[in-house]
TrEMBL record:
This is Uncharacterized protein. Belongs to the disease resistance NB-LRR family. InterPro entries: Apaf_helical (IPR042197), Disease_R_plants (IPR044974), LRR_dom_sf (IPR032675), LRR_R13L4/SHOC2-like (IPR055414), NB-ARC (IPR002182), P-loop_NTPase (IPR027417), RX-like_CC (IPR038005), Rx_N (IPR041118). Keywords: Coiled coil, Leucine-rich repeat, Nucleotide-binding, Plant defense, Repeat. GO terms for biological process: defense response to bacterium; innate immune response-activating signaling pathway; plant-type hypersensitive response.
Length: 1973
């Protein structure tokens, strides 16, 4: 950089710093502004309300204002359109501003039915200060046509300056013989009217012309016309005003009638608004953002002038109030509108793009910035600050206008704030230097004193500015962001944009309709910030290559003018030749400047395009560099290179694409089709095959197989002949425009009619070439608009009953319908039929009659006289039409030669496809790096990239070749990653110095290049692969996958059809109630895939049957090859607990090597006196059973233990157990098998019954699956991705062995078929599952995180990488390739398992493909050099040679592998991406971890609960690619500052052990002793693990200052981790205030956990302020608890605006009162409260009002009330309630109408002395669980209610019944009596339950209750019984039963009047129900 320029910038920065300091000091000196809380402002609340209104608010159509229908009719009567003679009549509409004059006049002006009587029309906005010349130009342009004006201006430009008189004479002359309609809107003075009337309108015109004037001045109206032609617009009637306000605020009239207060305030508001529509709409826009309770306060803020004395100034003050109430982010957007001229129609896209370029639109996570800008636009519409002028069929506002009063206000404010400067004719502007936006209206601006280099936007409307204005691309405009010349009326030349590269900061550049520009200067590439480039209708024929450097470009519109004018060799060959010969004259003085600048671009364009007649432009190679591009128009495919066309497919964010294809080759067509298929985000596509001379073909479009799934608009222009089949896949299509296609009836209407979302159908110029167009029943379900233009062969349009139920508009132009339009009565919503010019219809009278009688009051509009449209009753003789033969599309079917070979090849192909894409991106990134030039390898890297792209296209058919490419891709990616790390980790000097490293990398890249060439040449030599289209079944499968992820309902494979009987019979065999005798062995036997494991697991997980009766449980997967030590460890861990295992291993560690007998002896000893339940799953051999039985189970255990074995061998089962205890699992019954298949394919029995072919096919498929559940599920998952019509073809591919001879190998082949049908991107994900041990529960987040780190997950537009990965996970679940294990309460699958057969398949394929290595430890591991993933199960080691340097992932399950005895991070693993140590059972030490930085490519690092790591090394900052860092239960107290360098980090979990056992200050003696004895730790007397643990504890204790928190300190700079999604757990006390504040910058954070115990109030406030900024946060955990005491949430109430998307909230600490902001958490699903000490009342009110709350946990005195009452209407979505250790709780009550979805109630350690009431009111209750130390009064009553509950819930008790029943603990205690409502009995009977409950609250005695049932038929009965026997007589009526002891109750005599019987003596005992004695 030049020193002078450097010095200038440095001085400027210093000056800015000084200005900042001065402003700050000035504020301090004068106390100008006081600091306010950033936690919540009204502005932010408004912003939140704005989002809500953008989503759900219904906009009032302000062009159809309430009460204006009558006004419109009266105005049309005054206009009197039918009187077509006499002089021009002037009609005035008069009224004060805001009454709606312009709206009424425009509705009349746009009425086609009435305006067809005028030959020309014009709308002219006059306003106060108008340009006379511009007014006349507008009138000529609109009345006589744009060509007429251009011709006039050209004529006078050659002679003299154009004056007003010239224009006036032309206008008067042109209008003499025409009938015209002119609207002069907003006329202010009589002088203006006199001038316009005298100079613009002819005096002699007796054609019945009309002039409409709108004005606010009644006196002016009286001078313009007679009183009879003045229409005085009055304010709205009060009823209409109220209706308008209610419509604007989305309130119903019924709501107002039911609420007197609301009715009163609404009436006051409309009165205060003076009944003026504009005031009502703007005020209504504010009220819509406020709650009704706040309307009264707002009413008091309104000025009262409009109510008492309506005036323009009062109206302005009222409207200004709406501006003042705008959120801050909307105010600059609104003021920006002052740039546009009065009554200007503003395009939404143009306005939003300019807002974005100016920086007014804030980026929001997860939302496209254009969508945010559109939401701002919609909000201004909702608030009535701008008015919609053009609305699309689907309701999107395309254009808007600003009311003149509104514009006056924003112009005034903009002027005051120096926001926008508007220059007008003949004025002198003195502007301050702070002006940033400049708009020229008109042509003359004399003196402008501006700091031009401060301007950010310049906009020109009209002629070229004169005076002191710099040139368009002057260096003075160097800070310009926006240059908009779209509405400039002058011709700016090529010279004007020559220096465009000087405007380096340009973001928005609009040169639309710049016909004199013929090339983009090469300096355009310097505009690196450019986002929008609009060059529509220019003479540019090709884009320069420098355009590809514009990396931020989002919109690129460049099209050339249609036709070449003077130089058209097709249209004007003679003129072209003549002008070409005379071309030198162009540069002479005889040709004026205007003609010269027009001719030069035309000749340039014609030459460069070779006179090619299309409007597209050629795009250069490298167009794929524009990754942000969303709009690209218009590409000329014919002149664009194949490479560039192929690159279009890389624009993954492209939403809108327009191309011309005329003249292109078939090869280019194929490449373009392949590119289209890749554009997954494309929403709008236009393909134009038309030239200016003739029409091209579009038949090549049939080669598209998988169109963009989200396509909403499709426009095709060209010959098709037949409708492409892929049209039927366009489920999202909203708008279709077809031109010149020549389509026929039948298939066309069938395919188009089936499109579910099609709303607009436009058929132009013989797009449809048949005589009849029939809309059949059930078709076009969403069609709103049908436009038919110039269909010459069409004779009849027919609508059948049940078609097009939403059709609103039919427009016909240039058609001759000789048979008419038939069946419009079947269109219930039809509003209008419009017959345009040359639209002729037979039987018009019949059509008119049908329109008149249509129930929807349809309107028939005719553009011409009726006679021009009526064909009469034509009887046209139909001529036979010859039909052209249909084009036959031949499909290439590859024959299957050998199933196993094809399966293997497809696997290799899938792997290669997944890898090559990653390698390409790495190559492109490396080549782009400037340092590659220093290494001299840039050319090689680009060569590799290009060659790999070519390979990628071939991979779809490759077999042998693919294996080489797969391996080569890995090597390339490794090399490029290493290259990147080498470059980024060193400065330039060190790169130059380290020649040896340079040389090594360069050599390696050169070698890779040679390998690429060799592989490519080998393919050429042997013709291995021929190129085919990239449109494959894989892409279609991918699309089907997306659909299924969105809508498919997964079968719960744990509840398989037909298994209920099997479960019941197996439980009978287990006999859980027999709790004595020796251990019993039960065997479940059956072939693989029958469901043995699924059935056994359902029983094993049963709380009621197993967990309750067996204190020790274990699930052990044996399999064929198990490790004996690992199996015993697993049994000890599950049966006796992990602590027992750890203590045993610790005890043995210092003495001997752990052997099998050590573990066996311990296990046998501990199980002697325990009742255990063990499942041995997948047992294969008898000797394995004998070994386990002898060594693991004690012989003398008589506790009734049970051992369940699942096996495939009948012989083995019979030798393990007696025949009576062997359960043979059989195949599914036919009906159950069919039901399972239908459920998996989302079909119903009704579908099958109505389709016999389908029924036959389903039966054949389940038979071929052998009625095996696993086979049915996997095959059903494949069928779910196919149409029913394709099932038969797939059926033929199924092997038939299972049907004939079921065997394990046959089942494997069947399941392998499911794998073969996986999409290519899912296959590596599926094979990756072989890493995990058999029957391992795999967590979803862990698996998806690893997939992402490995590069298996392809990014998709609009989705985070994690969301895409989770969609892969869900797809594997849907396809039954994995089985869900644990499901969250919201239905989200949390973990999965892999069936053993499926796992065998993945392991087998992975071994064959060297994808994953699983060392067996027996020396059988034959490893090839290209193995990339390794997983150790147990302490096995790999004894064969392994190249560790290419390993990408390492996972260890169990003990330390011998191969990694010294370190788990050896130097050789330098290419490692994934290191997963989460499930290790050995201790990971600090030494293991210190060298982690050597793994510089690491992306996923997870360390489990077995570690003694106490410090993250500072070198961790070198892991620049790290995405996931899990450090669970470590001794780390603080994260190093280098953690902030990990810019790619998405998950950061770091927790530490919460207590210091050896160095805790809570145990001072032990702490001092251990400290004194510390030297002993380093002696051989202490084991290695003990030494590591004590050192780690000491480090943690000292660094954390003996903090009891398990959080860690995070450093300053944490805010730089912008991609962070998960952060756990932060110790707020240890963390600095600045770092806490930075947490608010983590805008993508979804999950946050913090510890606040011991932190200051200031830090807590900073924390909660940061939390408010986390708009993406979904899970929050705040823990204020310490080990010794409970913390408080003192500052939690300071939150006022919590994260709006919060779904999970966990609070641990004292609250006492529920914070008010909790009620704002409308998305909250899970709420966990610990130790909160909440009180009754407010707590349940707030919690009960949360609409989405599904899970409520109340732990350890979270609630201090005695009663927990669920009120009517509360907790509408609650599913699970868990109550743990609520010491003061005595009663739980559910009122009628509460918690309608509650399914489960868990109670643990609670004493409910009053019981649980009202479970009858819980219709979906499934389970009540009483855990340990849970006691409930009236347990018998609860059991009775459970038994009689209609939903049959289960009452589970972990302990004996007596331990849960309070009635057994307090004999003789006082008893309370409570009478319940009568219970229904048999007819003629009535009964009542009387509850007798103790009143004793002594914690040492239990409550009792007694029920007495009084019945008129059987007397008195009681249940259940007290302990022992007793004699009881019920007291006589009137006796006080409330406080009587039992003895007193027994002493009373029964009054016979009580039941109509004599006294009864009731005797009862514990086990019998009381009956009359």
């Amino acid at each position: 950089m030049k020193l002078g320029e450097r010095h200038r910038i440095a001085v400027q920065i210093r000056n800015l710093k000084s200005r900042i300091d001065e402003v700050s000091n000035r504020n301090t000196r004068y106390s100008l502004i006081k600091p306010i809380s950033s936690i919540t402002t009204e502005d932010e609340r408004d912003s939140y309300l704005e989002d809500a209104r953008n989503r759900s608010g219904s906009n009032t159509d302000e062009s159809e204002l309430v009460g204006f229908a009558k006004t419109k009719d009266e105005l049309l009567k005054l206009i009197d359109v039918n009187t077509n003679d006499g002089p021009a009549k002037v009609i005035c509409v008069v009224g004060m501003g805001g009454l709606g004059k312009t709206t009424i006049a425009r509705k009349a002006y746009e009425n086609k039915e009435h305006m067809k009587n005028f030959s020309c029309c014009a709308w002219i906005t006059v306003s106060q200060s108008f340009d006379r010349k511009e007014i006349l130009k507008q009138m000529i342009r609109q009345l006589l046509g744009a060509d007429s004006l251009d011709k006039l201006l050209k004529e006078f430009s050659e002679k003299l300056l154009v004056q007003v008189q010239h224009l006036a004479d032309h206008s008067v002359e042109g209008l003499k013989e025409k009938r015209y309609l002119v609207v002069l809107d907003d006329l202010w003075t009589i002088d203006a009217w006199n001038w316009i009337h005298d100079i613009a309108f002819p005096k002699i015109n007796n054609r019945g012309s009309r002039i409409i004037i709108t004005t606010r001045d009644a006196g002016l109206a009286g001078r313009c016309t007679s009183e009879s032609l003045i229409y005085h617009l009055e304010p709205l009637h009060i009823d209409d005003a109220i209706h308008l306000l209610l419509a604007k605020t989305n309130i119903r009239l019924e709501d107002m009638k039911n609420d007197e207060d609301l009715g009163s305030i609404v009436t006051k508001l409309v009165k205060r608004c003076g009944y003026l529509p504009l005031a009502i709409l703007t005020i209504g826009g504010i009220l819509a953002t406020k709650k009704i309770m706040g309307w009264g306060k707002f009413y008091r803020e309104l000025p009262s002038e409009l109510e008492s004395n309506p005036s323009l100034e009062a109206m302005r003050r009222m409207v200004t109030l709406s501006y003042n109430h705008l959120p801050s982010h909307l105010k600059p957007c609104f003021l920006y509108l002052s740039i546009f001229p009065e009554d200007f129609e503003i395009q939404r896209g143009r306005l939003v793009d300019r807002w974005i370029a100016e920086g007014f639109v804030r980026a929001t996570d997860g939302v496209n910035i254009e969508d945010v800008g559109n939401s701002h636009f919609n909000e201004l519409i909702n608030r009535s600050l701008i008015q919609p002028s053009k609305v699309s069929t689907d309701g999107v506002v395309k254009r808007c206008r600003i009311h003149d009063i509104m514009r006056d206000i924003i112009v005034s404010i903009s002027r005051e704030e120096n926001f926008v400067l508007l220059t007008r004719e003949k004025i002198t502007v003195v502007a301050e230097e702070s002006i940033r936006h400049l708009a020229f209206h008109g042509s003359k601006c004399s003196k402008i004193f501006l700091e031009w280099n401060h301007l950010r936007s310049v906009t020109l409307f009209g002629d070229r500015p004169v005076g002191r204005t710099p040139a368009l691309c002057s260096p003075q405009f160097r800070m310009l962001r926006v240059l908009d010349l779209e509405d400039a009326k002058f011709k700016f030349t090529q010279n004007d944009i020559r220096n465009i590269g000087l405007l380096r900061h340009m973001k928005y550049l609009n040169f639309a309709r710049a016909s004199t520009i013929y090339t983009l200067p090469r300096s355009i590439g310097k505009l690196q910030c450019l986002q929008i480039l609009n060059m529509r209708e220019a003479n540019i024929s090709a884009l320069t290559t420098e355009v590809t450097k514009l990396q931020n470009l989002r919109s690129l519109r460049c099209s050339r003018r249609s036709g070449s004018g003077y130089f058209s060799i097709i249209d004007n060959p003679k003129e072209c030749l003549m002008i070409t010969m005379c071309l030198p004259m162009v540069f002479s003085t005889s040709i004026n400047f205007s003609d010269r600048v027009k001719l030069i671009p035309e000749i340039c364009m014609s030459c460069s395009t070779r006179w090619y007649d299309t409007k597209g432009v050629r795009v250069p190679r490298g167009i794929d560099n524009l990754k942000e591009l969303q709009i690209l128009e218009v590409v000329d495919i014919n002149r664009t290179s194949r490479k560039a066309i192929e690159e279009l497919g890389e624009l993954i964010q492209l939403r809108k694409l327009s191309v011309t294809t005329k003249g292109a080759t078939n090869k280019k067509y194929q490449i373009f089709c392949a590119a289209i298929e890749k554009l997954s985000s494309l929403q709008s596509l236009r393909v134009d095959a038309e030239g200016f001379s003739d029409t091209g073909t579009l038949e090549w479009l049939n080669s598209i197989a998988c169109p963009p799934p989200f396509l909403k608009t499709l426009k095709l222009n060209g010959s098709l002949a037949d409708t492409p089949n892929w049209f039927g896949n366009l489920k999202q299509l909203v708008k279709m425009c077809l031109s010149r296609c020549g389509l026929k009836d039948g298939k066309t209407m069938e395919i188009l009619g089936a499109l579910p979302n099609l709303m607009v159908l436009r058929l132009y110029r013989n797009a449809y070439a048949d005589e009849k167009m029939t809309f059949r029943r059930g078709t076009f379900p969403n069609l709103r608009c049908l436009d038919i233009y110039l269909l010459k062969q069409l004779r009849e349009i027919r609508f059948e009953e049940g078609t097009s139920p939403t059709m609103e508009s039919i427009e016909i132009y240039g058609c001759r319908l000789e048979s008419g339009i038939i069946g419009i009565k079947h269109l219930p919503r039809l509003k209008i039929i419009s017959l345009e010019y040359d639209g002729k219809v037979a039987k018009l009278d019949v059509l008119q009659e049908e329109v008149n009688t249509h129930p929807n009051h349809t309107e028939l509009q005719m553009a011409e006289d009726r006679s021009h449209h009526d064909l009469g009753d034509c009887s046209v003789q139909k001529l036979p039409t010859s039909l052209s033969p249909c084009a036959v599309v031949s499909l290439l079917v590859l024959s299957l030669k050998g199933e196993s070979n094809e399966s293997m090849a497809e696997t290799v192909l899938s792997m290669a496809r997944s890898l090559v894409g990653s390698a390409i991106s790495k190559a492109a990134s490396a080549a782009a790096n400037e340092t590659s030039l220093l290494l001299g390898v840039e050319k090689d890297i680009w060569y590799i990239k290009d060659e790999l792209k070519a390979m990628q296209a071939f991979l779809r058919a490759a077999e042998v070749w693919a294996e080489q490419i797969c391996d080569l891709s890995y090597d390339i990616e490794d090399s490029l990653d290493e290259f990147k790390v080498h470059i980024e980790s060193q400065n330039l000097f060190r790169q130059m110095v380290k020649l040896r490293e340079r040389h090594r990398i360069a050599i390696r890249i050169h070698n890779l290049k040679s390998r690429v060439e060799e592989v490519s040449s080998r393919n050429t030599r042997y013709s291995l692969v021929k190129p085919i289209s990239s449109s494959t079944e894989d892409d279609m499968d991918s699309y089907a996958e997306d659909i299924r992820n969105l809508s498919a309902r997964n079968v719960d494979e744990a509840e398989l059809v037909g298994f209920s009987d099997s479960k019941k019979r197996l439980l009978e065999m287990i006999d859980t109630n027999a709790n004595d005798g020796p251990a019993k062995v039960i065997c479940v036997v059956g072939m693989g895939g029958l469901g043995k494991t699924a059935l056994s697991r359902k029983i094993f997980e049963s709380e009621e049957d197993i967990r309750k009766n067996f204190p020790c449980n274990a699930w052990i997967t044996v399999s064929q090859s198990f490790h004996r030590i690992e199996l015993l460890k697993d049994m000890i861990r599950q049966l006796l607990g992990p602590i027992s295992l750890n203590l045993l291993l610790k005890e043995l560690q210092g003495k001997v090597v752990v052997q099998v007998h050590h573990l066996s002896e311990y296990l046998l000893e501990e199980l002697k006196e325990k009742r255990y339940f063990v499942v041995l799953d997948d047992l294969w051999f008898l000797h394995d059973w004998n070994w386990i039985n002898d060594i693991a189970f004690p012989k003398n255990n008589k506790m009734g233990s049970r051992i369940v074995i699942t096996t495939r061998s009948v012989d083995l089962a019979e030798k393990c157990a007696t025949a009576s205890l062997v359960y043979h699992l059989d195949f599914l019954q036919m009906n159950d098998a069919i039901t399972l298949l239908l459920r998996k394919t989302n079909k119903k029995h009704e579908d099958m019954e109505s389709n016999k072919n389908m029924q036959n096919m389903v039966e054949r498929i389940v038979n071929k699956c052998g009625r095996l559940p696993l086979a049915i599920l996997t095959i059903g998952a494949v069928l779910a991705t196919k149409h029913v019509s394709e099932w038969e073809k797939f059926y033929e591919q199924l092997p038939s062995e299972l049907e004939i001879n079921p065997s394990l190998e046959a089942l494997r082949r069947m399941v392998t078929l499911g794998y073969n049908h996986l999409p290519s991107h899912l296959k590596p994900c599926f094979l990756y599952l072989s890493i995990f041990p058999e029957d391992f529960e795999i967590k979803r987040n862990r698996l998806v995180g690893r997939w992402i780190a490995e590069g298996f997950v392809r990014p998709q537009v609009g989705m985070t990488t994690k969301d895409v990965g989770e969609s892969y996970f869900n797809e594997l679940i849907s396809r039954s390739m994995i089985q869900r294990s644990r499901v969250g309460i919201a239905g989200k699958i949390q973990s999965c398992r892999v069936h053993d057969i499926i796992r065998d398949i993945t392991v087998s394929i992975s071994r064959q493909e060297n994808f994953v290595l699983l060392p067996m430890g027996d020396g059988s591991d034959l490893v090839q050099e290209n193995t990339r993933h390794i997983a150790f199960h147990g302490s096995m080691s790999c004894k064969t040679g392994l190249d560790w340097s290419i390993i990408r992932s390492l996972a260890i399950f169990g003990d330390r592998p011998k191969s990694l005895a010294h370190a788990v991070c050896p130097d050789q693993l330098r290419m490692l991406r994934v290191l997963d140590l989460e499930d290790v059972t050995f201790l990971i030490t600090q030494k293991d971890f210190d060298r982690i930085a050597l793994l510089c490519h690491l992306k996923y690092l997870s360390i489990g609960y077995s570690s003694c790591i106490y410090s993250l090394p500072r070198s961790i900052g070198k892991l620049q690619g790290l995405q996931t860092l899990n450090m669970l239960s470590t001794y780390i107290a603080a994260l190093p500052s280098e953690i902030s360098k990990l810019q790619c980090l998405r998950t950061l979990r770091c927790t530490r052990v919460s207590n210091n056992n050896n160095f805790s200050i809570n145990h001072p003696v032990k702490c001092i002793t251990n400290t004194i004895c510390l030297p002993k730790v380093f002696t051989p007397l202490v084991s290695r693990d003990d030494r590591a643990e004590k050192i780690a504890e000491l480090h943690m204790a000292t660094k954390s200052c003996w903090s009891e928190s398990y959080g860690v300190k995070v450093p300053k700079g944490i805010g730089r981790l912008r991609d962070l999604h998960v952060l756990e757990y932060v110790d707020i006390r240890q963390t600095s205030s600045r770092a806490i504040k930075e947490l608010g910058q983590l805008s993508k954070l979804r999950k946050l956990g913090v510890m606040t115990k011991g932190s200051t109030k200031e830090k807590c406030k900073i924390l909660y302020a940061a939390i408010e900024k986390l708009c993406s946060l979904q899970s929050l955990y705040v823990d204020s608890e310490g080990s010794s005491s409970i913390g408080t949430f003192e500052c939690l109430n300071s939150i006022s605006s919590p994260p709006p998307l919060l779904r999970t909230l966990r609070l641990d600490g004292s609250l006492e009162e529920m914070p008010n902001w909790i009620e704002q958490l409308t998305h909250l699903r899970k709420f966990y409260l610990w130790r909160s000490k909440l009180k009754e009342g407010k707590t349940m009110l707030i919690l009960g009002a949360l609409p989405n709350l599904m899970l409520l946990h109340l732990y350890q005195n979270a609630y201090l009330g005695e009663k927990l009452v669920f009120k009517t209407g509360a907790f509408p979505n609650l599913r699970t309630l868990r109550i743990y250790e609520l010491d003061q709780l005595r009663e739980i009550r559910f009122e009628d109408g509460s918690s309608p979805l509650l399914e489960k109630i868990d109670i643990f350690t609670a004493r409910l002395e009053s019981g649980i009431f009202g479970i009858i009111h819980l219709p979906r209750l499934k389970e009540i669980s009483l855990g340990y130390r849970s006691k409930v009064a009236r347990l018998a009553q609860l059991e009775g209610e459970v038994r009689t509950h209609p939903n049959r819930p289960v009452l589970r008790m972990v302990e004996d019944r007596s331990d849960n029943d309070l009635a057994d603990d307090a004999e003789g205690s006082p008893v309370e009596v409570e009478a319940t409502d009568p219970l229904p009995e048999q007819e003629g009977e009535s009964s009542q339950v009387i509850m007798l409950t103790t009143n004793n609250r002594d914690k040492h005695s239990s409550s009792w209750f007694y029920q007495v049932m009084i019945s008129s038929s059987i007397g008195i009965s009681g249940r259940p019984c007290f302990c022992g026997c007793a004699h009881l007589a019920v007291p006589r009526r009137g006796a006080d039963l409330r406080r009587l002891p039992l003895s007193s109750i027994a002493s009373h005599a029964l009054d016979s009047s009580l039941s109509g019987m004599n006294c009864f003596n009731l005797t009862f005992s514990r086990d019998m129900l009381l009956v009359p004695a």
